[in-house]
Design a protein that fits this description.
Layout lengths: L6 E6 L2 E4 L3 E3 H4 E5 L4 H6 L2 E4 L10 E5 H11 L4 E4 L4 E6 L7 H27 L4 H13 L8 H18 L1 E2 L2 E2 L6 H23 L18
Parallel strand pairs: 1-7, 2-8
Antiparallel strand pairs: 1-4, 3-5, 6-8, 9-10
Length: about 220
């Protein structure tokens, strides 16, 4: 093919969302070539397919840019590919579901009500020096006209709300995850691992113990 000798530049964002199970290169990367007939051919090359398209399975995967280059070279073996974007990127499959006007309006109203109640609770708790029990007693007496005699529906709903909020924030209960997103603990552990790896690399580099071009050091010849 004449396109085999062309140079193509590819660029992928870190997180790409697709709306169909069969994903092609044109769905996830942006490509540019001096030959205008090359890019349309590259856009149709199949990259991957999501076999499970329901909410019970994880419709997300990570792809190395080397996989993209491999797919291009399978069709154009002599194509020169220059990556201008991410080395690895995330592909998420989301089926398009357009909610009705009434459903969308109900969601907006629900978010507004929750936000209003949450803001009001925070302000009242702050003004009462975080005296939640005293504040609940005042609200109960204001609404019902009766003196709080102890445990009321306010304390019960508060406890239930705390449980729901904690489970939603940490995104798992036991070994079960509610969504495919990583939990806050997993995010912090990955950040911690990255910090450790960066520290080790910088430490070996500063002590001139890094194995580099022209270095004759071998593993085990020194103590860290």
């Amino acid at each position: 093919m004449a396109a085999n000798s062309e140079t193509v530049y590819i660029k992928a964002d870190r997180n790409v969302e697709v709306t169909k199970a069969e994903v092609t290169l044109g769905d996830v990367v942006t490509m540019e070539c001096a030959n205008p007939s090359v890019v349309p051919k590259l856009n149709t090359i199949k990259l991957l397919k999501f076999h499970h398209t329901d909410k019970k399975h994880q419709n997300r995967t990570t792809v190395s840019i080397l996989k993209v280059i491999e797919c291009i070279h399978q069709q154009f073996p002599n194509m020169d590919v220059q990556n201008m974007g991410e080395a690895d990127f995330i592909v998420t499959y989301e089926e398009q579901q357009t909610a009705g006007g009434a459903v969308h309006l109900m969601k907006v109203v629900g978010v507004v009500i929750i936000s209003f109640i949450g803001a009001a609770f925070s302000i009242m708790a702050f003004n009462n020096d975080v005296g939640t029990t005293k504040m609940f007693s005042q609200i109960y007496e204001l609404v019902t006209g009766k003196t709080n005699s102890g445990f009321t529906i306010l304390e019960l709903t508060y406890c239930i709300g705390l449980i729901i909020g904690i489970l939603t924030f940490f995104n798992h209960f036991g070994k079960k995850k509610f969504t495919v997103d990583p939990t806050p603990m997993e995010v912090e552990m990955r950040l911690y691992e990255n910090d450790i790896q960066t520290t080790l690399i910088e430490t070996y580099s500063r002590k001139e113990k890094e194995l580099d071009v022209g270095s004759t050091n071998t593993t085990g010849n020194h103590r860290s």
